[in-house]
Design goal:
Blueprint: H1 6-25, H2 32-41, E1 46-47, H3 48-55, H4 59-71, E2 75-80, E3 83-91, H5 93-114, H6 118-136
Antiparallel strand pairs: 1-3, 2-3
Helix pairs in contact: 1-5, 2-5, 3-4
């Protein structure tokens, strides 16, 4: 049955985590997708391609997330001085503040998910590493 498929459960769990995160981010007016972009940028600038690669999202998803963040004054976009064909995205001062608040929300949710069971977290990490290595192998 579909509900016993690990891959199906992972997809559903991803949506559940996104909703739990969004509940914590309500006061910041931030979606889970926007929060993960802010967290990924952190203290470094990334190209649009870098954001797509880090989050395994398509160009249109990356563009819409960055556009919303830019409109809210949380990131800025500029031409890449090293390659004029690409765009560099970085946090603004306001973006840094929101990113720090989002990082706290991630930490709180992580603590809740951990539930005092380190073995569960270790098994989860191993599974996430397996997913990452399979997806990088292009499978």
């Amino acid at each position: 049955a579909m509900d016993s498929s690990v891959s199906a459960q992972l997809l559903v769990a991803g949506h559940r985590v996104a909703r739990m995160l969004e509940a914590r981010l309500q006061t910041l007016d931030l979606s889970a997708g926007e929060a993960i972009v802010l967290a990924t940028l952190g203290e470094r600038a990334l190209t649009m391609g870098g954001i797509q690669g880090a989050l395994h999202i398509g160009a249109s998803t990356a563009t819409s997330l960055v556009t919303r963040l830019e409109r809210a004054g949380r990131v800025s976009r500029r031409r890449n001085p090293e390659d004029a064909r690409s765009i560099v995205v970085e946090l603004t001062e306001a973006g840094r503040e929101v990113s720090a608040a989002a990082a706290l929300a991630f930490d709180e949710l992580d603590d809740q998910l951990r539930g005092g069971e380190p073995a569960d977290v270790d098994a989860h990490r191993a599974l996430m590493e397996r997913v990452a290595s399979l997806s990088e192998a292009g499978t």
